[in-house]
Structures are given as C-alpha cells and as structure tokens.
Amino acid sequence: MLLRLVPGFRRAMDLSLVLDAEGIVHELRSVAEEKWALVVSDDDAARAEAALTAFERENPPAQRKRSTLLPLADGIVAGLVFGLSLLALHIWTGPESAGSTWFARGSAEAEKIVGGEWWRAITALTLHADAAHAAGNAALGGLLLAILARMFGAGVASWLVLLAGAAGTFLAAGLLQHSFVSVGASTAVFGALGALAAAQATDPGQRRRAWVPLGAGLALLGFLGTGKRADFAGHLCGFLAGVALGLLAARLPRWRNRAGQAALALAAAAVPVCAWWRAHS
C-alpha cells in the first residue's frame, strides 16, 4: 500500500526512520525526480499512518522560500541598455584627446569637483579613454546591472550603480583634492560589485555566494591598480560606496511594480543628461 509520496529525499528518509523506529516493515522507492514513495503492507497501514501523522504534526515540512528574484527579462534589458548606451556614448564623444571638449568639461578633476563643479562626478562616468576601456565597462557593468536588476528591479538597480559611481568619485576627489583626474564607468562598475556583495551577504539563501563579488572586486582592484592609468582611489571608493548602498537597499522591501521600476530607470538615465547639460551651459 502506498502510504506517502514525498517530495525530497531528506524528508523521505526522515519518514522512513520513523517507521524503522516503530518496527514497521516498509519500502522506500524513487518514483520520479525528487519524488519518493513509502510503501507498507496493508496490515501495517493503520499503525504506520498514526506514526507518521504524529511525526508530521510535531515536525511539519519546511516551506520553500518564495523566490524574490524579478523576471530574467528585466535584468537582461537593463544590462543591454546600460552596455549599449556606454558604447554609443563613446562613439559620440570619441576617445580621450588634448583637444576634446567633452573631456575638458566632463572629466572628474578633483580640484574642480571640490571647487563646486559637482556634475563632473557624473559626466566622467560616461567618458572612456579608448574603445577597450568602454567595451570592458559596458560588458562587465551590463552583467552586474542585470544581476542587480533581478534582485532589486531595474529602476532601483540603476540608481544603485549611478549613486555608487558618483559617490565613489566624490569621495576620491575629496580625499585626494588635487592629484586626481578620472574618466570611465569603472567606479560605477566597482560600486555594482560592492552592492552585489552586500546584498548577497544579507540574504541567508545567498550568503555563501557573497564572497564571489567580494573576491572579484579585490582581484580587479589588484589587477587594475597596477596600470599606468589606474584610478585605484576611485575604484576603491566606488566599491565601498556600493557596499553601503547595497546594505541599505537590502533592508528595503522589494518593489515588484514594473511600471514604477521603469520610471525609476528612466529617471536614473536622465541624471547624466542633466549633468552634461550643466557642463555645457
């Protein structure tokens, strides 16, 4: 007689041990993927049912936690828009050169930022020294934004990356005051890594994976910090800003309204536009 059809081997083994303790002869069969059947003789059915009912009353099966991840499509769209936008902006502004108006007005020069030109902390995120610089940030930044968008939504994730990049640039400029000139979305990319590490560290289901973005951030800091054009201070400050923002975002309830998230994402995209308008005014 089929007594129970149990999802999950661990739970099936628990019930089997209960029957063993009662001295009830039974059979545990695998009937499908992650499905196990407990079979007993008709003579033992009533006693086995009573034993399992008592056990289940005191030890109810653990409820599977509902996934908090948002649809995959939202993350993919957010990542693609980010990456393609960075590449399009690089084509529009061109590489770094002595006569470039874009770099003259938009680079993150610490002295000018501290002096009141706040927009440079944002415009600098959209400028890249060369095509390889832009392509690397577009690919890695798009991937990280896609992951964050699945966790928090495209709008919240966009603001996390933007604020981490701007805050990291502001912090580095404030610390160094003079010897700091930076361009590129790398500070925002490191911010995304920091936010991802913080979000996973606060989620019991993903806590074991939190070391992955943390390790990736430290490895990138070490690797990029050896380059001639390295912005070590900006990268580190962006990462730390991302950690702080990620911890804050992880405490907020998940907002699953797609229209609201889209509006937030558009608002985040408008910030660099406004910063460039200010830079050219």
Quickly give the structural class: mainly alpha
Helicity level, as a percent range? Answer: 55-70%
The major β-sheet equals:
3 strands, antiparallel
Give a count of the beta strands, DSSP E runs of length 2 or more: 5
Topology diagram in text:
Elements: E1 2-7, H1 9-21, E2 26-32, E3 35-40, H2 45-58, H3 72-93, H4 101-106, E4 108-109, H5 110-114, H6 120-123, H7 131-152, H8 154-176, E5 181-182, H9 186-201, H10 211-224, H11 232-251, H12 258-280
Antiparallel strand pairs: 1-3, 2-3, 4-5
Helix pairs in contact: 3-7, 7-8, 7-9, 8-9, 8-11, 8-12, 9-10, 9-11
Structural descriptors:
two-stranded antiparallel sheet; mainly alpha; elongated; 12 helices; 281 residues; 5 strands; 3-stranded antiparallel sheet; 2 domains; single chain; 8% strand; Alpha-Beta Plaits; Rhomboid-like fold
Compact description:
The chain has 281 residues and is mostly helical. The chain is 65% helix and 8% strand.
How would you describe what is shown here?
The protein contains 12 helices and 5 strands. With 281 residues, the chain is mainly α. The chain folds into 2 domains: 57 residues, Hypothetical protein rpa1041 (Alpha-Beta Plaits), CATH 3.30.70; 209 residues, Up-down Bundle (Rhomboid-like fold), CATH 1.20.1540.10. Strands 1-3-2 form a 3-stranded antiparallel beta sheet, covered by helices on one side. The chain has a two-stranded antiparallel sheet with strand order 4-5. Strand 2 and strand 3 form a beta hairpin. Helix 8 crosses helix 9. The longest helix has 23 residues. The protein is elongated.
